[in-house]
User: Fold these one by one.
Assistant:
Number 1:
Amino acid sequence: MVVGFTYWLSTTEEHAGGGEGSHSEQSEEGGDSAGGEAEQIFAQNCASCHGENLGGGAGPALEAVGGTYSKDEILDIIKNGKGGGMPAGLIEGKEAELVATWLAEKK
């Protein structure tokens, strides 16, 4: 967990000034631009703990998280964290909404 959080801290400044446009270029590679953008946000902010393929690691696997939690519940966890390891606010605003929607589809 510390490694993932440290990684997040080291990349936060790098992405802070990028704005929303920094994700749009890479989102076109998939057919669904919103899903592609969500995947890119996940890769940059979440994969270090949850795995590149959602298989888990320091954090739990998210391959079927939509079968357990609704989009709103996932968004709440992203915003407020979850006891035992998930820190609050790693992604915010529109990016958090996109990732929560994308993860909620994983059933």
Number 2:
Amino acid sequence: MKIHIILEAAEEIDSARSYFNQQAYALGDRFLDDIEEALKRIEQDPFSLPLLETCSESMPYRRALLKVFRYAVVFEILTDQVLVVAVCHTSRAPHYWLKRRES
């Protein structure tokens, strides 16, 4: 299934990559590798990934945890695509990104 990353989520990826590159040489590249691996899992079988446990059961959001970094890719399965709405640290306040889907 085709994946579309909204602007805010893309900015979160870029911001985290920049931060990690400041911490250690090429760490931001390792972060991007981890993101790409999560996106491949989403693309292959988005329905196999769990619903976001911090949302009510009526909300359609799912998450893919990164393998190395403590981040999650939050996404929604639409008819013809998967929409990535956030790439967030797992310790960040939940649901800060919900307003992104209201517009």
Number 3:
Amino acid sequence: MAVDRIVWKILLDFFVLLCGWIWESYTTIGVFTFGAACQQLTSNMTKFVIGRLRPHFYDFAVLVCAWYVGLTRVQEHYHHWSDVAVGYLIGAVYGVLVFVYVLKPKKYGVPSVRRSWAEREAAPQSALPRPVLAR
């Protein structure tokens, strides 16, 4: 009789623990899904109101993120300001070198932003600045 009570107690504790874990997982996934839905709704509404993103939006976003990371590293005393400035300089130099020597924009030409959809479809695929085509 005592063994049965111990077994049932262990099973009950396990069941309570499992139910708690399932509930925590459900709420965490629910919060994540709600946040993802809000983000997607905001993004879709912005695209509908403004139109498509401008050509240099992602370049600007990357620069702002790099600037923010550098400032927070200095503010939290992880790095000295001169180290961050030299890191920016090194990153800019490598970015320019990769753009000029790997993408080779002069060879293929910079794609025009003002071309129509039909002109883009009619253009040959080799006109795109891809590193694979440069080899």
